[in-house]
Write a structure and sequence with these properties.
This protein is mainly beta and 471 residues long. The protein has three helices and 26 strands. A hairpin with a 5-residue loop joins strand 20 and strand 21.
Length: 471
């Protein structure tokens, strides 16, 4: 099924089109998530309680657990825990490759034990030191990185699983590239002066989806050093867009010198709201905009992007860059991208922003036809959207947004969002940890939705009548 989608809008028509595209997530009463989700459209209908108390789904849908942290992989290492961002790539025939992040922090003892070496790091020697980026000061490889799972859609079985990037820290989200790789992001700015690490962190790394061994651990330093969250690549231009998980974070873009070869350098820039330098997009104190509003943007070059002092966002904001309150998930759609501001909005329960690039994005003439940023969804009721994080664009044009709210009272949901900005529940985490959903992505044929629950680390393959969604 393919729902009606608008194409890329440029020039003067963009102003009118942005003026009323979506509808706010309107509050009706004080938020009380315990009452259940507040669907603005029927979606797939009510969620049915899972007898196993793991994952509640609508009627007609089912899940299969295809990976769990602690499993022994084909390379002899343990599958690390703390599953986060993930992408799905075609791998020939009915097979797909899932490249998965592990948000294991260098400073956490439990995270060290959840790494690929095991409880006592007894298997770390299986990782060649030259194939790992970073270590603790004692020389032991850091627990973060990525794993790659080859999964057969036809049989529902895992063909192989292995570690695919080693020695990084706090691999939160990332993004797929049009050339078949995963860009994984470190959400940390740790240095040997501030933490028990032997290298400086805060980089993006590239992991080829179909390579059989560990990826070359090359930090893409021209893409900046900051608390990276996620990336999205415009397949037409090769421009890379980057989010930053900080309350006072910025929204970035990277224009590579050579398309698809970020290690060869390029320009890192930050977004500025035109005629509103230094604007705060969160609406928390001063209301900048309303749902459906679109604003023209400019981009400024950033200096000293390797940021040895960890002050890139502060310097960018001082030069006029706009603030985005905890920019997290980002995904390319149909000539546009969507990103979440997890703590945005007047009640701090999240926003979804939409960016339509200029027809001259990153080139001369861009200022005459600027890109535009829209406030697509803003939560004013936690039952409608509660701290959206990772997201993807479904093959039929809806957004699927993972919630990341840690609470004993408020369960996390996987939400659907229609093209006019209304929400519905797709799944509910019924697992005892109530951990965040993460890494949501579809198989290339749209038949299977993959999603993670971060703690202790579970990957689900969900199937069902996707074409029956009601708006």
């Amino acid at each position: 099924m393919r729902l009606d989608r608008r194409g890329l809008i440029s020039g003067g028509a963009a102003v009118m089109a942005f003026s009323g595209l979506s509808r706010s997530a309107v509050a009706q009463t004080a938020p009380s998530v315990e009452q259940g989700p507040l669907n603005q459209v029927p979606g797939y209908g009510a969620l049915k309680p899972d007898a196993n108390r793991i994952l509640d789904l609508p009627e007609g849908f089912s899940y299969r657990i295809i990976a769990q942290g602690g499993e022994t992989m084909d390379d002899g290492l343990f599958l690390p825990g703390q599953f986060d961002g993930m992408a799905c790539f075609p791998a020939g025939g009915t097979r797909v490759a899932l490249v998965r992040n592990h948000e294991l922090r260098h400073g956490s003892r439990s995270h060290r034990n959840w790494g690929p070496g095991g409880l006592n790091q007894e298997r770390l020697d299986l990782i060649p030191r030259e194939r790992a980026y970073g270590t603790y000061k004692n020389g032991k490889v850091l627990p973060g990185g990525t794993s790659t799972q080859i999964y057969d859609l036809a049989t529902g079985r895992t063909v192989s699983q292995r570690l695919s990037l080693a020695g990084t820290s706090t691999n939160c989200a990332g993004g797929l590239t049009p050339w078949g790789s995963w860009l994984t992001c470190e959400e940390t700015e740790a240095t040997p002066d501030t933490a028990d690490v032997a290298q400086t962190h805060g980089w993006v790394f590239e992991v080829p989806a179909l390579d059989r061994g560990l990826a070359d651990p090359v930090p893409l330093k021209a893409m900046g050093r900051f608390d990276h969250e996620a990336v999205a690549v415009d397949p037409r231009t090769g421009v890379v867009y980057l989010t930053e998980d900080k309350i006072d974070g910025l929204f970035y873009r990277f224009i590579p010198e050579v398309r698809g070869e970020m290690a060869r350098g390029g320009r890192l820039q930050a977004m500025v709201i035109r005629d509103k330098r230094g604007a705060d997009t969160s609406n928390k104190t001063d209301r900048l905009w309303n749902t459906g509003d679109g604003l023209a943007v400019d981009w400024i070059d950033l200096a000293e992007v390797e940021s040895p002092n960890g002050d890139l966002r502060q310097r960018g904001h001082a030069d006029g860059a706009a603030l985005v309150s905890r920019g997290e998930g980002i995904h390319w759609g149909d000539g546009e991208l969507y990103l979440t501001a997890t703590s945005g909005g007047p009640i701090g329960r999240g926003q979804v922003l939409r960016y339509v690039p200029s027809p001259d994005e990153g080139r001369a003439g861009e200022s005459r036809r600027p890109g535009r940023l829209q406030l697509f969804v803003e939560s004013t009721d936690a039952r409608v959207l509660n701290m959206g994080d990772n997201l993807t664009v479904a093959p039929w044009g809806h957004l699927f947004v993972c919630e990341d709210n840690y609470s004993e009272q408020n369960p996390n949901f996987l939400r659907g969002v229609t093209p006019d900005g209304r929400t519905y529940a797709v799944a509910k985490s019924a697992y005892i940890t109530n951990s965040e959903f993460a890494g949501v992505c579809f198989s290339p044929d749209g038949s299977v939705l993959f999603v993670n629950v971060q703690t202790p680390g579970i990957t689900f393959a969900i199937t069902g009548p996707w074409a029956t969604v009601q708006m």
